[in-house]
């Protein structure tokens, strides 16, 4: 299920036709269903005011929206946009299936003057998820709204907007939403948002579904994502360390962290393979091939490591 919150403020961007400036943000409701997407449009001060004044908020279904529910936090005083109008919105997007992970926010996208850049689209263009259209076109400019969007009105394919600009955020979002295991489980298994995920699912068996990137990011996306990574490292006073890309990069990186010398990668690979052999039952279910074949591959120098070898390295004592 998708949850979204929408708010509108006047005069955000000049449109080709009539302009309606809308702001959208996302925050999670108390109890959500898997694949829910939360969007709430509000500033911190607005959210604090709402929390104090509305102890028990009540969502209401938007007529003709396909069960999209909305909670108006502030009524707008402007016009209601019509199909064909261009609107500009700000939003916070959260994914309930990842414990409320915030997958995107327009407030993170800044222009040359360091002001947040709104998401602009034309109502009725069918380029955005239906739930967001339903939320925006039933609002007045200047309003503030929190919206819950069901899966049927959320992302139906990977080309629908809004799309996180960061490649890894897009991959994480879409591999979660379109995960075959989650889809097979249906929408009846709800999660209590106030409780840790493991409390609800720790004893529930589920088949492992390997996640594979659909395509390699193009040069522009890869460059932008790399620059974003460098900025994040700088925030924590860290620096990038280049590891030789010869197929042993995971093991070289581990060797550098454990022994302060990437040349010990063969020793790390040997220890990881030994861990995989000795504790086969812990890892076999996560390997998408015959386990003996997998071990034989991982013994070879130059064979890329994966999430299983990384976990085995974390479980192994290198004392």
UniProtKB/TrEMBL annotation:
InterPro entries: FKBP17-1-like, OTU_dom, Papain-like_cys_pep_sf, PPIase_dom_sf, PPIase_FKBP_dom
Record keywords: Isomerase, Rotamase
PROSITE patterns for this protein: FKBP_PPIASE (PS50059), OTU (PS50802)
PPIase FKBP-type domain location: 84-166
Reactions this protein catalyses: [protein]-peptidylproline (omega=180) = [protein]-peptidylproline (omega=0)
Keyword Isomerase carried by entry: yes
Gene Ontology MF term list: peptidyl-prolyl cis-trans isomerase activity
Residue ranges constituting the OTU domain according to the UniProt record: 238-319
Enzyme Commission number(s) from the entry: 5.2.1.8
One Pfam family it belongs to: OTU
Gene3D superfamilies: 3.10.50.40, 3.90.70.80
Superkingdom: Eukaryota
Coiled coil: none
Keyword Isomerase (UniProt): yes
Protein name (record): peptidylprolyl isomerase
